[in-house]
Design a protein that fits this description.
It holds the Pfam family PPR. It comes from Rotaria sordida. This protein has 269 residues and is mostly helical. The chain has two domains: 124 residues, Serine Threonine Protein Phosphatase 5, Tetratricopeptide repeat; 144 residues, no CATH class. The chain is built from 14 helices and no strands. The chain is elongated and about 60 Å long.
């Protein structure tokens, strides 16, 4: 009996030590791969990813995979991104952040059909995924699809509204102007404290030919510079995003913060 208890006690300690070492290793990898991307050393990011994926790609964190996809996106390396996509295909159904990164990769590389396919097959579409699709359509001069997609979103936040105004500015049609006016009247007043949104709205009015509305918006705005509001800069801090990503069990509020952070980062690129 004593020997049995001693065995289980030793085994438990060994398991705890192994888990601690694995957790420490994961955090070191997260920090290293992020450092390469921050320094725009994207080839080193992918070399590091290749080194670790040889062991077991299933054990790599979502953060590491997203960093690898980010490197592919920045380099416009579609072929490398497709290889990573195949390696982690089983995780797409359960990880909306990886799905969002894949959509962004394909959109930035001009493969709209593949991005659309990933989006359509996703059962639980998040605001991050909608944002990636909308931004991708705008970048690929397909603004009309942004309008169609916007109609599917309930309670859009500021970034989604900003992307809608960007699409309307690209369309420069009477319908786009009417939609801009309608949405600008319906959104919460607090949204008008966001200079990103104000700039996009002003641009939509001007490009759709409504100079009087643009002048009125400018004259009534307290933020004449239309610069990025310092109150929103914390969304752009990588540390905030990393702390949220490292937490496997996100609270509802943390998920909103994470999604807004990603959207603001993508919008500012």
């Amino acid at each position: 009996m004593f020997n049995t208890l001693l065995y289980y006690r030793s085994t438990y300690r060994l398991i705890v030590v192994k888990r601690f070492v694995a957790l420490k290793s994961d955090r070191e990898l997260d920090a290293q791969i992020k450092s390469f991307n921050d320094k725009k050393q994207f080839k080193k990011t992918l070399e590091l990813f290749d080194k670790y994926k040889e062991n077991d790609v299933k054990n790599l964190s979502s953060f590491v995979i997203n960093q690898a996809l980010k490197a592919c996106t920045e380099m416009r390396d579609l072929q490398r991104g497709m290889i990573i996509h195949r390696l982690i295909s089983s995780r797409i159904k359960t990880d909306s952040y990886i799905t969002g990164s894949l959509i962004h990769l394909y959109m930035q590389c001009g493969d709209v059909l593949r991005a659309q396919s990933i989006f359509d097959m996703s059962k639980n579409k998040t605001i991050v995924m909608y944002g990636a699709m909308m931004k991708g359509y705008i970048n690929n001069n397909m603004a009309k699809k942004v309008i169609d997609l916007f109609s599917q979103i309930r309670n859009p936040h500021e970034v989604i509204i900003t992307l809608l105004f960007n699409a309307c500015a690209q369309l420069q049609t009477a319908h786009a102007l009417n939609l801009t006016k309608k949405v600008s009247k319906e959104i919460p007043k607090s949204f008008f404290s966001n200079p990103h949104l104000l700039t996009s709205l002003l641009d939509a009015f001007m490009k759709c030919g409504d100079v009087s509305s643009a002048e009125s918006l400018f004259n009534n705005s307290k933020e004449k510079s239309f610069e990025k509001n310092p109150d929103y800069r914390w969304y752009l801090q990588d540390d905030e995003i990393n702390r949220t990503k490292e937490n496997d069990e996100l609270s509802a509020n943390d998920k909103v913060v994470f999604e807004k952070a990603i959207e603001f980062l993508e919008l500012s690129n």
